[in-house]
Amino acid sequence: MSPRLKSGERGGQAQVWWRRDGLQYDGDRLIFGGDEVERLAFSAGTPLYLYHSDRIGDNIRRLGAALDGHPLDYRLFYAMKSNRFMPLLSYLKAFGGCGVDVCSPGELMLARQTGFRESEISFTGTAVSDSDLDCLQRHPGVWVNCDSLSSIRRLGSRCPGREIGLRINPGLGIGYATNELLRYSGSKTTKFGIYRQQFESALELAASSDLVVKGLHFHTGCGYLDPQLPVFDEILAACSWFADRVSGLEHVNVGGGLGVPLTAEDAPLDLERWCELLAEHLGQRGLQIWIEPGEYIVKDAGLLVLQVNTVEEKESTTFVGVDGGFNVNMAPAFYRLPLEVVPCRLHGARASAAGGEVTIAGNINEALDILAENVHLPTVKEGDFLAFLNAGGYGASMSSDHCVRGYFLEYLL
């Protein structure tokens, strides 16, 4: 969770694991999307989220190219809950290639406001209220995935004859590394989806409610990479039990959850192997595959920039205090996810030995508010700016105004 700058630089360019086109040091300054991050922070103030549109487009193209290399009929739906910044949504609409998955009437309205047609929108909610269903009744072209018998019954009373999907729970979960906080299903019973024991009842209820089941949906966790693909294989196999029981099934929505590397030890997801699993389990059935990537599209396309206001040793720990906390990004505190921390400007020698081990603390008056613990950083001073990588998804969209410190800006580069 530090830059891990290596010696042996060439042409003044620090060698770091996360370096790529559009994200690198130019001399001692961090460049993102062609702009100096420090300059943007000075002009806009902090906390500041930065998103790089070219990286978003590259991520969509890479995913599409992998899928196109296999005999798969598919549709992509961007998971809006990962990032709902309206300029970013407008960019996605203009870029093309995907619709949007929404989980609330508010997100549905944002999708419509940014130009997505009803036919390009999929709704997957939980604990859906009557007012939510009233909204869906007013948007007959939006696809709806029902995740409970209650929602099936109440939607059927409003929209007889509507084609729907059923959200299932295969009883297996997946997520980044061994992090159980990111699993939507598994050995522990969760609120999501319809279990095997209820499935026949769900089909009968849909039929008696004059709803036509044409799709299945599951989302079993977030942030998975290559080590979790064997579990993904098992999840797809478990889905077959449900698919065998739906007459006239046309598509299976495999949710999102595709992850990106968060540390130097992580490798990018092997999309080729991932696509092979989809083709093996679903492609041979002649089913269209729907996919809801959010994190994969935007997470590594965003930075959170915060300013250092305190550098102070307490007991044997050096604390670096910054002007934002779990109110602007809850990933480290609530999900125990690492955020790679990068100085926006390097002071003096760029080698990793130039700094030391620190704990980065937010400005929220709660014990949980630690953004990074015992990480190595090059020399950092009060007034410096730090960039937290992989903050493009589930950062700003999950923010709060706790301690009335909810202010931040977002820029699309």
Can you characterise this structure?
By secondary structure, the chain is an alpha/beta fold. The chain folds into two domains: 6-53 and 301-412, Lyase, Ornithine Decarboxylase, Chain A, domain 1, CATH 2.40.37.10; 84-293, Alanine racemase (TIM Barrel), CATH 3.20.20. Helices cover 26% and strands 25% of the residues. It is built from eleven helices and 21 strands. The strands form four sheets. Strands 6, 15, 16, 17, 18, 19, 20 and 21 form an eight-stranded mixed sheet that branches. Strand 8 (99-102), helix 4 (105-113) and strand 9 form a beta-alpha-beta unit. Helix 6 (149-158) runs parallel beside helix 7. The longest helix is centred in the N-terminal third of the chain and has 16 residues, at 53-68. The model is unreliable at 4-14 and 349-353 (pLDDT under 50).
The poorly predicted ranges are 4-14, 349-353
Secondary-structure arrangement, i.e. CATH architecture of the largest domain = Alpha-Beta Barrel
What does the overall shape look like?
elongated
Q: Number of helical runs?
A: 11
The major β-sheet equals: 8 strands, mixed
Question: Looking at the chains present, what oligomeric state does this protein adopt?
Answer: single chain
